[in-house]
What does this fold into?
Amino acid sequence: MAPNDSAETNGGTRGTAAGRRKAARYIVPVAVAGVAAATIGLVPALASSGDPDLPKISAQELIEKIAASDTEQLSGTVKISTDLGIPSLGGLAGSFAPGGAGGDGGKGGSSADPQERMTELASGTHTLRIAADGPDKQRLSILDNASEYSLIHNGDQVWAYDSKSDQAYHATGKQAGKDAGRDAGKKSGHPVPEGVPTTPKALAEQVLKAAGPTTSVTVDGTAQVAGRDAYKLVVKPKQSGSTIGSVTVAVDAESGVPLKFTLLPAAGGKAVVDAGFTEVDFGKPDASLFTFTPPKGTEVTEADDAKAQHKADKGLGDLIPGADAAQLGGGEPGAKNTKVIGEGWSAIAEITTPGATGLPSKASGDVPAEAQQFLDALGDKVTGKFGSGTVFKTRLVNALMTDDGKVYVGAVTKDALVKAANSAS
It folds into this structure.
Protein backbone atom coordinates (compact mmCIF):
# COMPACT_ATOMS: atom_id res chain seq x y z
CA MET A 1 0.00 0.00 0.00
CA ALA A 2 1.31 3.47 -0.83
CA PRO A 3 2.22 5.51 2.24
CA ASN A 4 -0.20 8.24 3.14
CA ASP A 5 0.73 11.73 2.05
CA SER A 6 -1.05 15.00 2.44
CA ALA A 7 -1.05 18.55 1.24
CA GLU A 8 -3.09 21.53 2.32
CA THR A 9 -4.15 23.39 -0.80
CA ASN A 10 -2.87 26.95 -0.95
CA GLY A 11 -3.98 28.11 -4.38
CA GLY A 12 -0.71 27.10 -6.02
CA THR A 13 -1.67 23.79 -7.62
CA ARG A 14 -1.10 24.06 -11.33
CA GLY A 15 -4.12 23.65 -13.56
CA THR A 16 -6.66 24.32 -10.81
CA ALA A 17 -5.73 27.71 -9.32
CA ALA A 18 -7.87 29.74 -11.71
CA GLY A 19 -11.14 28.24 -10.53
CA ARG A 20 -10.45 27.67 -6.85
CA ARG A 21 -11.92 30.84 -5.50
CA LYS A 22 -14.96 30.70 -7.68
CA ALA A 23 -18.00 29.88 -5.56
CA ALA A 24 -19.84 26.71 -6.47
CA ARG A 25 -23.00 26.91 -8.58
CA TYR A 26 -25.98 27.55 -6.29
CA ILE A 27 -29.55 26.41 -6.72
CA VAL A 28 -32.72 26.55 -4.71
CA PRO A 29 -33.54 22.99 -3.68
CA VAL A 30 -37.04 23.27 -5.09
CA ALA A 31 -35.25 23.52 -8.38
CA VAL A 32 -33.06 20.54 -7.42
CA ALA A 33 -35.51 18.39 -9.34
CA GLY A 34 -34.41 20.08 -12.51
CA VAL A 35 -30.81 21.04 -11.78
CA ALA A 36 -29.32 18.72 -9.13
CA ALA A 37 -27.96 16.40 -11.77
CA ALA A 38 -25.98 19.31 -13.11
CA THR A 39 -24.31 19.83 -9.77
CA ILE A 40 -23.95 16.33 -8.65
CA GLY A 41 -24.15 13.74 -11.37
CA LEU A 42 -23.90 9.99 -10.88
CA VAL A 43 -23.04 7.08 -8.70
CA PRO A 44 -21.64 3.50 -8.93
CA ALA A 45 -21.20 0.50 -6.71
CA LEU A 46 -17.76 -0.77 -7.57
CA ALA A 47 -16.11 -4.10 -6.85
CA SER A 48 -12.76 -4.10 -5.04
CA SER A 49 -10.34 -7.00 -4.92
CA GLY A 50 -7.69 -5.74 -2.50
CA ASP A 51 -5.39 -2.75 -2.18
CA PRO A 52 -2.49 -2.78 -4.70
CA ASP A 53 1.06 -1.87 -3.70
CA LEU A 54 1.94 1.29 -5.64
CA PRO A 55 4.83 3.79 -5.51
CA LYS A 56 4.46 6.70 -3.13
CA ILE A 57 2.84 9.83 -4.57
CA SER A 58 2.00 13.19 -2.99
CA ALA A 59 -1.39 14.86 -3.10
CA GLN A 60 0.09 17.65 -5.23
CA GLU A 61 1.52 15.14 -7.71
CA LEU A 62 -1.76 13.22 -7.90
CA ILE A 63 -3.78 16.37 -8.60
CA GLU A 64 -1.31 17.28 -11.34
CA LYS A 65 -1.59 13.75 -12.73
CA ILE A 66 -5.36 14.20 -13.06
CA ALA A 67 -4.94 17.62 -14.71
CA ALA A 68 -2.33 16.27 -17.15
CA SER A 69 -4.33 13.19 -18.16
CA ASP A 70 -4.72 13.18 -21.94
CA THR A 71 -6.88 10.06 -22.25
CA GLU A 72 -9.46 10.69 -24.97
CA GLN A 73 -10.51 7.14 -25.82
CA LEU A 74 -12.41 4.91 -23.45
CA SER A 75 -15.53 2.82 -23.05
CA GLY A 76 -17.12 1.15 -20.08
CA THR A 77 -19.99 0.75 -17.65
CA VAL A 78 -20.73 3.20 -14.85
CA LYS A 79 -23.12 2.47 -12.00
CA ILE A 80 -24.86 5.45 -10.50
CA SER A 81 -26.56 5.88 -7.13
CA THR A 82 -27.61 9.33 -5.94
CA ASP A 83 -29.26 9.90 -2.57
CA LEU A 84 -30.07 13.58 -2.01
CA GLY A 85 -32.73 12.73 0.55
CA ILE A 86 -35.54 14.24 -1.49
CA PRO A 87 -38.82 12.69 -2.65
CA SER A 88 -38.78 10.68 -5.85
CA LEU A 89 -38.63 12.97 -8.87
CA GLY A 90 -40.26 10.56 -11.28
CA GLY A 91 -43.86 11.76 -11.31
CA LEU A 92 -43.09 15.36 -10.38
CA ALA A 93 -40.39 15.85 -12.96
CA GLY A 94 -42.72 14.52 -15.63
CA SER A 95 -45.50 16.83 -14.54
CA PHE A 96 -43.37 19.93 -15.00
CA ALA A 97 -41.47 18.83 -18.06
CA PRO A 98 -42.34 20.70 -21.21
CA GLY A 99 -45.65 19.36 -22.35
CA GLY A 100 -46.55 17.93 -18.96
CA ALA A 101 -46.60 14.28 -17.95
CA GLY A 102 -44.90 12.01 -20.38
CA GLY A 103 -42.93 14.86 -21.91
CA ASP A 104 -45.42 15.71 -24.62
CA GLY A 105 -48.97 16.11 -23.45
CA GLY A 106 -49.84 17.17 -26.96
CA LYS A 107 -47.70 20.28 -26.62
CA GLY A 108 -44.69 19.27 -28.68
CA GLY A 109 -42.24 18.19 -25.96
CA SER A 110 -40.06 15.11 -26.28
CA SER A 111 -39.21 12.41 -23.75
CA ALA A 112 -35.83 12.23 -25.52
CA ASP A 113 -34.88 15.84 -24.73
CA PRO A 114 -31.56 15.68 -22.79
CA GLN A 115 -32.52 18.69 -20.67
CA GLU A 116 -35.40 16.64 -19.26
CA ARG A 117 -33.95 13.14 -19.13
CA MET A 118 -30.77 14.00 -17.24
CA THR A 119 -32.81 15.03 -14.20
CA GLU A 120 -33.47 11.36 -13.45
CA LEU A 121 -29.81 10.96 -12.48
CA ALA A 122 -30.53 13.16 -9.44
CA SER A 123 -32.04 10.23 -7.56
CA GLY A 124 -31.91 6.45 -7.40
CA THR A 125 -29.51 3.95 -8.94
CA HIS A 126 -28.75 3.83 -12.65
CA THR A 127 -26.47 1.89 -14.97
CA LEU A 128 -24.75 3.83 -17.74
CA ARG A 129 -22.67 2.75 -20.67
CA ILE A 130 -20.28 5.38 -21.97
CA ALA A 131 -17.84 5.64 -24.85
CA ALA A 132 -15.56 8.44 -26.03
CA ASP A 133 -13.22 8.85 -28.98
CA GLY A 134 -11.78 12.34 -28.68
CA PRO A 135 -13.63 15.60 -28.01
CA ASP A 136 -16.07 15.19 -30.91
CA LYS A 137 -17.34 11.64 -30.43
CA GLN A 138 -19.12 10.49 -27.28
CA ARG A 139 -22.01 8.27 -26.39
CA LEU A 140 -23.91 7.84 -23.15
CA SER A 141 -26.70 5.31 -22.59
CA ILE A 142 -28.95 4.98 -19.55
CA LEU A 143 -30.06 1.37 -19.27
CA ASP A 144 -33.44 0.35 -17.90
CA ASN A 145 -34.95 -3.10 -17.47
CA ALA A 146 -36.68 -3.12 -20.84
CA SER A 147 -35.55 0.12 -22.49
CA GLU A 148 -32.56 2.34 -23.18
CA TYR A 149 -32.01 6.07 -23.49
CA SER A 150 -28.98 7.01 -25.60
CA LEU A 151 -27.26 10.33 -26.25
CA ILE A 152 -24.82 10.35 -29.18
CA HIS A 153 -22.46 13.19 -30.13
CA ASN A 154 -20.57 12.97 -33.42
CA GLY A 155 -19.01 16.16 -34.77
CA ASP A 156 -21.72 18.76 -35.28
CA GLN A 157 -24.51 16.25 -34.73
CA VAL A 158 -26.25 15.23 -31.50
CA TRP A 159 -28.93 12.57 -31.37
CA ALA A 160 -30.88 11.39 -28.34
CA TYR A 161 -33.21 8.40 -28.53
CA ASP A 162 -35.68 6.98 -26.03
CA SER A 163 -36.50 3.40 -27.02
CA LYS A 164 -39.44 3.23 -24.59
CA SER A 165 -41.40 6.06 -26.22
CA ASP A 166 -39.77 5.76 -29.66
CA GLN A 167 -38.97 9.48 -29.58
CA ALA A 168 -35.75 11.16 -30.70
CA TYR A 169 -34.13 14.57 -30.24
CA HIS A 170 -31.78 16.10 -32.83
CA ALA A 171 -29.42 19.09 -32.74
CA THR A 172 -26.89 20.32 -35.30
CA GLY A 173 -24.12 22.90 -35.58
CA LYS A 174 -23.68 25.31 -32.65
CA GLN A 175 -26.73 23.90 -30.87
CA ALA A 176 -25.21 20.42 -31.06
CA GLY A 177 -21.95 21.63 -29.53
CA LYS A 178 -23.84 23.21 -26.65
CA ASP A 179 -26.01 20.17 -26.03
CA ALA A 180 -22.96 17.92 -26.14
CA GLY A 181 -21.49 19.79 -23.21
CA ARG A 182 -18.38 20.58 -25.26
CA ASP A 183 -17.75 23.81 -23.39
CA ALA A 184 -18.04 21.99 -20.06
CA GLY A 185 -15.00 19.81 -20.77
CA LYS A 186 -13.87 18.45 -24.10
CA LYS A 187 -12.19 15.40 -22.63
CA SER A 188 -14.87 14.46 -20.13
CA GLY A 189 -16.61 12.11 -22.51
CA HIS A 190 -20.14 13.19 -21.69
CA PRO A 191 -22.39 14.19 -24.60
CA VAL A 192 -24.98 15.81 -22.35
CA PRO A 193 -26.28 19.33 -21.69
CA GLU A 194 -23.59 21.79 -20.71
CA GLY A 195 -22.58 21.58 -17.06
CA VAL A 196 -23.94 18.08 -16.39
CA PRO A 197 -21.06 15.85 -15.21
CA THR A 198 -21.54 12.20 -16.14
CA THR A 199 -18.12 10.66 -15.44
CA PRO A 200 -15.91 10.45 -12.33
CA LYS A 201 -13.43 12.68 -14.17
CA ALA A 202 -15.98 15.47 -14.68
CA LEU A 203 -17.08 15.24 -11.05
CA ALA A 204 -13.51 15.29 -9.75
CA GLU A 205 -12.64 18.33 -11.87
CA GLN A 206 -15.55 20.28 -10.38
CA VAL A 207 -14.42 19.52 -6.82
CA LEU A 208 -10.76 20.32 -7.47
CA LYS A 209 -11.64 23.64 -9.11
CA ALA A 210 -13.43 24.64 -5.91
CA ALA A 211 -10.51 23.60 -3.68
CA GLY A 212 -8.51 26.31 -1.93
CA PRO A 213 -7.13 27.35 1.49
CA THR A 214 -10.32 26.01 3.10
CA THR A 215 -9.60 22.50 1.82
CA SER A 216 -7.50 19.58 3.05
CA VAL A 217 -6.27 17.16 0.37
CA THR A 218 -4.56 13.85 1.18
CA VAL A 219 -3.56 10.62 -0.50
CA ASP A 220 -5.14 7.86 1.56
CA GLY A 221 -3.77 4.57 0.28
CA THR A 222 -4.75 2.63 -2.80
CA ALA A 223 -7.65 0.65 -4.24
CA GLN A 224 -8.58 -1.48 -7.22
CA VAL A 225 -11.49 -0.22 -9.29
CA ALA A 226 -12.89 -2.00 -12.32
CA GLY A 227 -9.75 -4.15 -12.39
CA ARG A 228 -7.43 -1.12 -12.40
CA ASP A 229 -4.88 -0.08 -9.75
CA ALA A 230 -5.71 3.33 -8.31
CA TYR A 231 -4.66 5.90 -5.71
CA LYS A 232 -7.28 7.36 -3.36
CA LEU A 233 -7.36 11.15 -3.20
CA VAL A 234 -9.39 12.45 -0.24
CA VAL A 235 -10.70 16.02 -0.22
CA LYS A 236 -12.21 17.44 3.00
CA PRO A 237 -13.51 20.85 4.10
CA LYS A 238 -11.45 22.46 6.85
CA GLN A 239 -14.40 24.68 7.83
CA SER A 240 -17.39 23.87 10.01
CA GLY A 241 -20.96 24.27 8.83
CA SER A 242 -20.63 22.42 5.51
CA THR A 243 -22.93 19.51 4.68
CA ILE A 244 -20.04 17.83 2.86
CA GLY A 245 -17.96 15.44 4.95
CA SER A 246 -15.45 14.27 2.36
CA VAL A 247 -14.93 13.47 -1.29
CA THR A 248 -12.82 10.45 -2.30
CA VAL A 249 -11.56 10.11 -5.87
CA ALA A 250 -9.97 6.84 -7.00
CA VAL A 251 -7.40 7.84 -9.66
CA ASP A 252 -6.06 5.35 -12.20
CA ALA A 253 -2.37 4.90 -11.36
CA GLU A 254 -1.33 4.60 -15.00
CA SER A 255 -3.46 7.14 -16.88
CA GLY A 256 -4.50 9.61 -14.18
CA VAL A 257 -8.17 9.17 -15.10
CA PRO A 258 -10.57 9.29 -12.11
CA LEU A 259 -12.31 5.91 -11.92
CA LYS A 260 -14.56 6.42 -8.91
CA PHE A 261 -16.05 9.43 -7.10
CA THR A 262 -17.63 9.19 -3.64
CA LEU A 263 -19.16 12.13 -1.76
CA LEU A 264 -20.00 11.49 1.91
CA PRO A 265 -22.21 13.85 3.94
CA ALA A 266 -20.95 15.48 7.15
CA ALA A 267 -23.99 14.07 8.96
CA GLY A 268 -22.89 10.50 8.23
CA GLY A 269 -24.75 7.67 6.56
CA LYS A 270 -24.61 6.41 3.00
CA ALA A 271 -22.93 8.34 0.23
CA VAL A 272 -24.80 11.19 -1.43
CA VAL A 273 -22.91 10.43 -4.63
CA ASP A 274 -20.82 7.34 -5.37
CA ALA A 275 -19.90 7.34 -9.03
CA GLY A 276 -17.50 5.12 -10.88
CA PHE A 277 -16.71 2.40 -13.39
CA THR A 278 -17.53 -1.25 -12.97
CA GLU A 279 -15.86 -1.96 -16.32
CA VAL A 280 -13.48 0.26 -18.30
CA ASP A 281 -11.40 -0.11 -21.47
CA PHE A 282 -8.98 2.56 -22.70
CA GLY A 283 -8.87 1.20 -26.24
CA LYS A 284 -10.47 2.87 -29.26
CA PRO A 285 -14.27 2.30 -29.23
CA ASP A 286 -16.04 0.90 -32.29
CA ALA A 287 -16.96 3.71 -34.71
CA SER A 288 -20.51 2.37 -35.02
CA LEU A 289 -21.22 3.52 -31.44
CA PHE A 290 -21.22 7.13 -32.63
CA THR A 291 -23.64 6.81 -35.52
CA PHE A 292 -27.43 6.88 -35.29
CA THR A 293 -30.35 6.66 -37.69
CA PRO A 294 -33.86 6.97 -36.22
CA PRO A 295 -35.85 3.76 -36.57
CA LYS A 296 -38.83 3.93 -38.92
CA GLY A 297 -41.79 5.60 -37.25
CA THR A 298 -39.71 7.47 -34.66
CA GLU A 299 -41.06 10.89 -33.65
CA VAL A 300 -38.15 13.35 -34.04
CA THR A 301 -37.98 16.72 -32.23
CA GLU A 302 -35.50 19.27 -33.53
CA ALA A 303 -33.52 21.33 -31.00
CA ASP A 304 -34.96 24.66 -32.16
CA ASP A 305 -38.50 23.37 -31.60
CA ALA A 306 -37.57 22.07 -28.15
CA LYS A 307 -35.98 25.41 -27.23
CA ALA A 308 -39.17 27.24 -28.17
CA GLN A 309 -41.22 24.82 -26.06
CA HIS A 310 -38.94 25.37 -23.04
CA LYS A 311 -39.61 29.09 -23.27
CA ALA A 312 -43.35 28.47 -23.42
CA ASP A 313 -43.31 26.18 -20.37
CA LYS A 314 -40.85 27.13 -17.62
CA GLY A 315 -41.65 24.06 -15.52
CA LEU A 316 -40.26 23.98 -11.99
CA GLY A 317 -39.00 27.54 -12.34
CA ASP A 318 -42.61 28.72 -12.06
CA LEU A 319 -42.77 27.46 -8.48
CA ILE A 320 -40.56 30.32 -7.30
CA PRO A 321 -40.66 33.82 -8.78
CA GLY A 322 -37.51 34.20 -10.87
CA ALA A 323 -36.31 30.67 -10.08
CA ASP A 324 -34.98 29.85 -13.52
CA ALA A 325 -31.49 28.50 -14.11
CA ALA A 326 -30.12 31.82 -15.35
CA GLN A 327 -31.20 33.68 -12.24
CA LEU A 328 -30.71 31.06 -9.53
CA GLY A 329 -27.38 29.50 -10.21
CA GLY A 330 -26.84 29.76 -13.93
CA GLY A 331 -24.92 33.01 -13.62
CA GLU A 332 -21.68 33.82 -11.84
CA PRO A 333 -21.74 34.91 -8.18
CA GLY A 334 -21.68 38.69 -8.04
CA ALA A 335 -24.50 39.02 -10.57
CA LYS A 336 -26.85 41.93 -10.01
CA ASN A 337 -29.26 39.97 -7.81
CA THR A 338 -26.72 37.68 -6.14
CA LYS A 339 -23.90 38.07 -3.63
CA VAL A 340 -21.77 35.51 -1.81
CA ILE A 341 -21.45 35.39 1.98
CA GLY A 342 -18.30 33.65 3.25
CA GLU A 343 -15.95 31.52 1.18
CA GLY A 344 -14.93 27.97 0.40
CA TRP A 345 -17.12 25.07 1.48
CA SER A 346 -19.18 27.29 3.79
CA ALA A 347 -19.97 29.94 1.17
CA ILE A 348 -23.63 30.93 0.92
CA ALA A 349 -25.27 32.70 -2.00
CA GLU A 350 -27.73 35.45 -1.08
CA ILE A 351 -30.21 35.90 -3.92
CA THR A 352 -32.86 38.57 -4.20
CA THR A 353 -35.71 37.23 -6.29
CA PRO A 354 -37.25 39.58 -8.88
CA GLY A 355 -40.07 41.50 -7.27
CA ALA A 356 -38.84 40.42 -3.80
CA THR A 357 -41.81 38.10 -3.36
CA GLY A 358 -41.90 35.11 -1.06
CA LEU A 359 -42.79 31.52 -1.77
CA PRO A 360 -46.12 31.00 -3.52
CA SER A 361 -48.61 28.78 -1.75
CA LYS A 362 -51.39 26.37 -2.55
CA ALA A 363 -53.82 28.70 -0.79
CA SER A 364 -52.99 31.48 -3.24
CA GLY A 365 -53.68 29.15 -6.14
CA ASP A 366 -50.16 29.64 -7.50
CA VAL A 367 -48.92 26.08 -6.86
CA PRO A 368 -50.43 22.75 -8.00
CA ALA A 369 -51.26 20.30 -5.20
CA GLU A 370 -48.50 17.88 -6.27
CA ALA A 371 -45.92 20.66 -6.21
CA GLN A 372 -47.09 21.86 -2.79
CA GLN A 373 -46.69 18.32 -1.44
CA PHE A 374 -43.14 18.29 -2.76
CA LEU A 375 -42.36 21.66 -1.14
CA ASP A 376 -43.88 20.62 2.20
CA ALA A 377 -41.78 17.46 2.23
CA LEU A 378 -38.61 19.54 1.84
CA GLY A 379 -39.38 22.58 3.96
CA ASP A 380 -38.90 23.56 7.63
CA LYS A 381 -40.34 26.82 8.95
CA VAL A 382 -37.71 29.03 10.69
CA THR A 383 -37.62 32.46 12.32
CA GLY A 384 -34.86 34.88 13.31
CA LYS A 385 -33.71 38.46 13.21
CA PHE A 386 -34.40 38.38 9.46
CA GLY A 387 -38.07 37.56 10.05
CA SER A 388 -39.47 34.20 8.98
CA GLY A 389 -39.04 31.81 6.12
CA THR A 390 -38.73 28.21 4.99
CA VAL A 391 -35.60 26.06 4.79
CA PHE A 392 -35.68 23.58 1.92
CA LYS A 393 -33.35 20.72 2.69
CA THR A 394 -31.56 17.91 0.95
CA ARG A 395 -28.61 15.85 2.16
CA LEU A 396 -26.27 18.17 0.27
CA VAL A 397 -27.69 21.56 -0.74
CA ASN A 398 -29.98 23.54 1.58
CA ALA A 399 -31.79 26.82 0.97
CA LEU A 400 -33.60 29.34 3.13
CA MET A 401 -36.29 31.39 1.40
CA THR A 402 -37.48 34.28 3.52
CA ASP A 403 -41.04 35.51 3.40
CA ASP A 404 -39.82 38.82 1.95
CA GLY A 405 -38.31 37.08 -1.06
CA LYS A 406 -34.62 36.56 -0.33
CA VAL A 407 -32.92 33.20 -0.82
CA TYR A 408 -29.83 31.91 1.02
CA VAL A 409 -28.45 28.73 -0.49
CA GLY A 410 -25.35 26.54 -0.23
CA ALA A 411 -23.92 23.17 0.79
CA VAL A 412 -24.30 24.21 4.42
CA THR A 413 -26.45 23.37 7.44
CA LYS A 414 -29.79 24.95 8.30
CA ASP A 415 -28.19 26.80 11.23
CA ALA A 416 -25.58 28.29 8.91
CA LEU A 417 -28.31 29.59 6.59
CA VAL A 418 -30.23 31.20 9.46
CA LYS A 419 -27.03 32.77 10.77
CA ALA A 420 -26.27 34.21 7.33
CA ALA A 421 -29.79 35.63 6.99
CA ASN A 422 -29.56 37.19 10.43
CA SER A 423 -26.19 38.79 9.69
CA ALA A 424 -27.51 40.25 6.45
CA SER A 425 -30.54 41.82 8.14
About this structure: The chain has a mean pLDDT of 74. The first strand starts at residue 5 and ends at 8. The chain has two domains: 5-22+40-312, 315-424. The chain has ten helices and 19 strands.
